[in-house]
Description:
The structure holds two protein chains of two kinds. Chain A has eight helices and 31 strands.
Amino acid sequence: MSRAVPHRPPGRVHQDCTRTLRRSAWVISFLLRISLAQATEAGQSSVGALPPPDDRPMEFLRDIRPILERSCFRCHGPERPRGGLRLDRREDLLRGSDAGPVIVLSNSAASRLIHVVARAPHVPEDLWMPPDGKAPPLTAEEIGRLRAWIDQGLPWAEPVEQSADRVEATLGMGWSVGSGPESRLRARWQQPSGWNGGLEQLTWLHEPPEGARFTLLVRALRDDTLLQMDWLQPGWGWLHAGVSQYRVFYSDRGQWPWASGQAVGLLSHEPALDIGRSWIEWDLIRENWPGLRIGYEHAYRDGTRSLTAWSASPDFSQRRLIWPASQAVEEDNHLFRFHFLHQAGQWHLEDELRLQWINVRRARTNAGFLSPPESSPIVRTRATQTHESFQAANAFRFERSLRPWLRATGGLLSSRYDANGSSDLADAIIDVWPGYLRRWHSPSLTVAQTAHAANANLIAEAGAGWITWTGVQLEKTRQQTLGRASFDFEWSPGDVWQLPATQENARDRFVLTEMLGLRWTGLRHLTLYADARAQQDSVELFEEQLGGDAPFRRDSLARTHTWETRVGLECTPWTRVSVGLSHRHRQSNTDFDHNIDLVPTDFGNFSNPSYPAFIRQRWSRSDQVQIRLGWQPSTRWRMAFLYRYWAGRSQTATDPLDGFDPITMEPVPGFYTPGRKILGADTDLHTYSLQTILRPASRWSLQAQAIAQDQHTRSGVDHAELLPAWVGRTYRIHLKGRWQWTKQSELEFEYQWAMSDFHQDVAATVFPIGILWQEHFIGAGVRRQWTEHLSFHLRYGLWHYEEPQASGSNDSLAHLAWMSVTWQWR
Amino acid sequence: MSGRGRGEGHVRVSLLASLGLCGALPLMWLACSTVHQPALQPPHIEGAHLVGNRACYDCHTNLVRIFPTSPHARLPLRTPETHDAAGCEACHGPGSLHVAAGGGRGRFILNPSRQPQICLDCHWEVHDEFRLPSRHPVLEGRMTCSQCHDPHGIDITKPAGGLVWARLNETCGACHAEQVRPRLFEHEALREGCTVCHVPHGSTHAALLTERDSHLCLKCHAQTPGPGVDSGRIFIGQVDHTERLRMGTCWSAGCHTAVHGSDVHARLLY
């Protein structure tokens, strides 16, 4: 019965109107015809075209409901019944649709329902049910069953009533203990040491056949809490609400590796950051109303985190001692969101308004000046910052079909950002007076930024498997910032040299982006694609600082051209084999015009030939090739392989920078640099990844996954005494398996090994920041279904972590266990 | 100095790309004689079968309409009988039961925006990245892929959530607003985007960094030879950084600590 499904062109609203008119006309004519047929028995020709009714007694659940589920309920079920017709309840079926009855009890030949599903010749083709593309047409045997069902008086039976509620609750308990730094154990597994537990998950689904339904999700396990509710009120849409918070643990040794010969300090506290949010959103869904969504969200961060900086050691006698840095964070983010969606004729319109308030306070304790490995820390610095901002942004979007094969989209964004803030920085003595201490203040900072962006795009589905899209976007941003600062230096206790300054920044950025994409799917199981993007970006920047530690005035123009292309294919050349190939290229070039770059002083303005005034050009390029293979030799075995190669290179061109011979004081052209293109850095990154999933027997399931990354980055310096190339490899192997021991019991095992080797054999004068670590994890577990409603899951794991370069001080061996008990009810 | 010809890496990439395309030609030819079931396996829903994208169109019109321009539309999944495109079901699972139930959020259908494992079944290499020491907490259940990625459309067709609204760094800024906010003295690197310095999924280096030492900064910041050029000294901005380069990264020892831009100091010292 299946036949080719014609392509359904866009413009559905117009089609629906036309269809409604035709349907009404046809209903009237049909009713007239049936009446006439009954009166004159002249309708035998149309009735005779129907398949004959089945002669067996019909059982609703066995013979009829499967047909309705497959072919009818999607449009004529409880959700958004088309034409007002519901087929899931007998009384609704007898009542019929908005256009009148569809059933004549005990007379299938006169029932409109039978004629439309039988696709009778006198029924207009666009009224045939189910519509093409929605479900396959009914077979003659199925129509015969429907006829018999109507003729036999529409016998009905409801399926066995199931509870509207499903509840699943899982209680969890965890335990970890081991040797080595506890903070590293916490940071690796993101759970507190020792015993912990709570409600791992509570899910409550309330889904009655009619009326409101909701899903409730609750979690209160360790430092992770969640309460989430999604409520659907028919006729009013969804209400989403919830609160959540989790804790991120950091190592009290900071985020800095250290090598042999170094020692490390510990923070006086266990750094941890609480990240949370609460939200409420109403998604209004009403028949014939525009879509509306109104929401509010509050997100926050509160706590302390360790940083990638190091800090000064409090113990001056210990050289090569580094000290982790930390930052106290308080962030509050309030977001109000209003979203509007409307279909007006051929126009699809969307608008979103966002109002956002952000308050931030950060206090960082980090490095003083330090020059390891020979020298010692000088000062410890504490920096605090507060920042309050408000942003209002509105994004409008439209979409319209211009032709059945051509669609236009576009959008407009406007945004306004205002902020003010303050900063303080103070150095503290560690042991001896370092010569001076910084006492910097910036009590007043104001920022204003406006941004406007607009884009327009065309998407064409030209047939023969071709899809093309093209677009252009304009973006303009203006930012103005004013600040007052005082760069004060305390030369001796109480002797402060004040250096007040005013600061100003004005920045105009204009970006034009063009895009073109092509895809061809003309051959079955083959997709060819290519897309390209070009961007022209200009930034005009004025910066000025009058007074302070380093006064300057700059006016520069940076013009950037960026090109990005991607070509590739996806195909399945043989049964169970898939192949993906792609190449991506990106190139960017920036030219700098330094109109003004000088040092304003009370004695006049002096030119500043140095950084960044002598930078003339920056150029970068990257290429990526990716090969992805998938192979499924049998239904029990699947393999996949990926290889990715990324190569990047950057260069900077400078003006020659002259200087003076320090002995003769004669000017020397190109003393600092002769002016040329200088290598920034180049990088090669290879990634190999393999995955295989095997089910050797019905009760066995095995999975293996491996990844290897090889990175090599070198800069123009590339000198063992200064900065050796950054070279390293990362490997990871992950094996896991399951064995279904009995129908109720399942055993599982897991092994992971990972290693990252970025260690550097550097000269004694270079601070060794490379890292070498490896970890093993072996785990086993059991799942058991105790009763129909009760199950449990027990897991144990042994974790070993080592950093050979840290002389064992960072090594860990830990036992971890998790147990969960789940109760299900429905 | 580890010598390597300029652009050698790109030559290698170009060679690989050429080989790949050469290999693709016979595959394209073979594709003409393909058989029924592609190797792509959609997630499993008990008792359900593929129905094709058109079945999704009625209720999810907006998403299905823009889907052909999505990278996910490249997936060659089709219904077995009619060979209709079934890309929606490649991620959401076979939809027949969902359709039969008259739709409904979560009814016999999967939602990768709440179940990242569905995405990771195909993007398995990303799964490994999420296990690295520095990572976004996706496997821990605290983030989902859809918080950063739009799986249905490409940027250009979805300005309200893409190209216009989520301009450069906007995606990261949704959670890391403090790092991408406007500042008095900007760090130009942010003009090119967060991914110049950070790997979004996971890294073996702290703070999701691409490199761990000064190479991260020297990619852009010119290192000039210094006084007399043959002195062996390295100057950055006419300041001798020879000793400072030995200290690790440019920010870690307390110098250029304002890596995302500064509200106080033009050289990002604070």
